[in-house]
What does this fold into?
Amino acid sequence: MRIIATLFLILNLLTIDVQSQKSSTENQEKIIYVTGHAHMDPVYRWRWNEIINRELNKTFTDVLVVLDEYPDLHFVQSY
It folds into this structure.
């Protein structure tokens, strides 16, 4: 959850920075796209039951909670 909150904070800061750097003659808006991502590495110091019972459950539960709040959120997951 902290990672998602950090990503949203960074996105807001980048948006403010982009807007503050615009010159008065520039009318184009810049769009920044952010995609949430989780890389679940089953061989990185975890036992299989830890991955299933703790890591996958926690990761996807958090994503589903955030998707309820931000339905336009895009999320990818990899192994």
User: Anything to note?
Assistant: Residues 2-21+32-78 form one domain.
